[in-house]
Design a protein that fits this description.
Blueprint (H helix, E strand, L loop, with lengths): L3 H20 L9 H24 L11 H11 L11 H4 L1 H12 L11 E5 L11 E5 H13 L4 H8 L1
Antiparallel strand pairs: 1-2
Helix pairs in contact: 1-2, 2-7, 3-6
């Protein structure tokens, strides 16, 4: 994953302008394709940082938020049967799933910063981010799934592979 060329191309002023633009409310924009590109870059950068993190630090020791315990317990209470090792698109995108996720996510409004920002999530936790292995999710969905993967040992495969 190498996205730094995209940010470097913006320069300091461009990156600063992009950061400011991303902090404005959605109502300030129409369907501006430049904004979509900035959001995609931000999501990609977040994914790159996270993957590098689980590749270099034993995931069982990671704390992703100040409220990991609350997110994890609520997640496993709400999604007992969800296989976080190998997600399917319908686990997040079916009509039933969307409603369950909406209720789950909304409880973290005001608790998890930017809880509903767009983030990239790997479907198969043993693989890298790729077009085939990535789905768009909210930040709190990302945290819920990745905290579960870390605590349940599923991200160990990425960490071990990076050490060999």
């Amino acid at each position: 994953m190498a996205s730094h060329e995209g940010l470097a191309a913006l320069g300091v002023e461009g990156a600063s302008a992009a950061a400011h633009a991303l902090s404005l409310p959605a109502e300030a924009y129409g369907n501006d394709p430049r904004l979509e590109v900035m959001w995609a870059m931000k999501a990609y950068n977040h994914a790159e940082v996270y993957f590098n993190l689980i590749s270099s630090v034993d995931p069982k020791f990671l704390k992703l938020t100040k409220v990991d315990d609350q997110i994890y317990s609520s997640f496993r209470e709400t999604f007992k049967e969800l296989d976080v090792k190998q997600l399917k698109e319908e686990d997040l995108k079916s009509d039933e799933a969307k409603e369950r996720w909406r209720l789950f996510c909304n409880q973290f409004e005001g608790i998890v910063e930017d809880f509903n920002y767009g983030t990239l999530l790997r479907l198969d936790c043993e693989k890298d981010y790729s077009e085939e292995n990535t789905i768009f999710a909210t930040r709190v969905q990302f945290f819920a799934v990745e905290i579960a993967r870390n605590r349940e040992g599923y991200n160990n495969a990425v960490f071990k592979r990076s050490k060999s």
